[in-house]
Write a structure and sequence with these properties.
The chain has one domain (about 1-379): Alpha-Beta Complex (Spore Coat Polysaccharide Biosynthesis Protein SpsA, Chain A), CATH 3.90.550. The chain has 14 helices and 9 strands. The chain has helices at about 15-25, 40-55, 70-80, 95-110, 150-160, 170-180, 185-200, 225-230, 235-255, 260-280, 290-305, 305-315, 340-350, 370-375, and strands at about 5-10, 30-35, 60-65, 85-90, 95, 115-125, 135-140, 170, 205-215. A hairpin with an 8-residue loop joins strand 6 and strand 7 (about 135-140). Helix 11 packs across helix 12. Mean pLDDT is about 85; it is low at about 285-295, about 315-325 and about 360-379.
């Protein structure tokens, strides 16, 4: 049995969750899956029915958490983990079992690392449903944070912010990352910012050379709120105070420094993060010329499909960049990630019998909308 547990918070996306369970059933996944469900009754009943069908075939722990946030679901689920290693997974994403095994072996050999992950892809589909035609695949950036001092790792993380939350962690470390989330009134601090920063303070984060994660470009609910709205929210200051104190305590312990020095590092790190966000979101900031050209190219491709077809054919062979996981190169048998990606491709494009009753997507398969064209990950 794989010594890892997948922690999946979910709310009102039963069809995506069923798709994910189907994927792991088909692969014969040997780890444990813990689901925290905050959904409405109709989604809960649908999910419970499928889990009953999978009883005896998969190791699934299912708990209902009505009204709980994603962060609080994870905090509760960690206490149910029966394995030494665990990883958080969204219900619309996929983790590759082979990549999980490599990360576990790495962490067993490298105690100074708190987390490990492999190469990740972002996948866009034409339809809004749980299965449909893929229109784009591209790389999804995750952190590699390897400075010796905890303070330096925190500064590196917040200067160039990416999420380490989908990395394999030791269960005790993951429990520590989410222990204080219920004390944070601001949801972004709770679900993302505090756990991400605690991860890099507690240890190093490594990226391995293997296909590990595929994220569907779907849910905008987990994106950070606009900087101005976030900073002027009444929940910001009390959440920041918990964030600062929690990180300062951990920093002082890890680096053997005073609490005053630790607070100064936290303030500097968060300031660099805020300055970058505010600058990037400023209405006065004009996009570089290259982005105007890309926008024009995408518009032209939508109006002349032959251009989009030619680009997809030529792009994997162009010099520069990481083309290993671009569409359609990853679908070719010669691709280094082909065998790991194809089960994900099948899960996303083929309707499983467990998805019987799934509503027909609002957009026919193969027909791009303005929104999917605008956010195509190949840009």
């Amino acid at each position: 049995m794989l010594m890892i547990t997948l922690l999946i918070p979910t709310i009102n996306r039963s069809y995506f969750l069923i798709r994910l369970l189907t994927y792991y059933r088909e692969l014969g996944f040997q780890g444990c899956i813990c689901i925290g469900d905050s959904s409405d009754p109709q989604h809960v009943e649908r999910t419970k029915g499928v889990i009953q069908q999978l009883k005896g075939k998969m190791d699934i722990v299912y708990r209902e958490y009505p009204g709980l946030s994603s962060a609080e679901c994870i905090r509760n689920l960690v206490d149910l983990v029966p394995t030494s290693y665990a990883v958080v997974l969204r219900d619309y994403d996929f983790l590759v079992p082979g990549g999980l095994e490599r990360c576990v072996r790495f962490l067993e050999a490298q105690p100074e690392y708190i987390a490990a992950h492999g190469t990740a892809a972002i996948v866009d589909v034409y339809s809004a449903g749980a299965c449909g035609e893929i229109c784009g695949i591209g790389p999804y950036r995750q952190p590699s944070v390897e400075a010796e001092k905890a303070g330096d790792r925190l500064l590196d993380q917040l200067r160039s912010y990416t999420l380490p939350l989908f990395s394999v962690c030791r269960t005790d470390d993951l429990r520590g990352m989410y222990q204080r989330v219920s004390t944070l009134p601001d949801s972004f601090f709770a679900v993302e910012l505090l756990p991400s920063c605690l991860a890099v303070v507690r240890g190093k984060v490594k990226e391995l050379d293997c296909l590990y994660l595929a994220r569907q470009l779907l849910d905008r609910g987990y994106l950070s709120p606009p900087a101005y709205d976030w900073l002027t929210s009444p929940n910001w200051l009390p959440s920041y105070q918990v964030f600062r104190d929690c990180l300062s305590e951990e920093l002082a312990l890890r680096d053997g420094i005073s609490m005053d020095d630790a607070r100064e590092i936290v303030n500097r790190a968060l300031w660099s993060y805020l300055a970058r966000r505010v600058t990037n979101e400023s209405p006065e900031r004009r996009p570089p010329k290259v982005f105007w050209l890309r926008s024009w190219a995408r518009l032209a491709a939508r109006r002349m499909p032959v251009l989009a077809w030619a680009w997809r054919k030529a792009h994997p062979f162009l010099p520069g960049g990481n083309h290993k996981i671009f569409f359609p190169a990853v679908l070719r048998p010669g691709s280094p990630h082909h065998s790991e990606f194809m089960p994900i491709y099948s899960a996303m494009t083929t309707r499983s019998n467990l998805l019987d009753g799934c509503p027909t997507p609002s957009v026919p398969f193969g027909v791009p909308t303005e929104d999917t064209a605008r956010r195509n990950p190949q840009r």
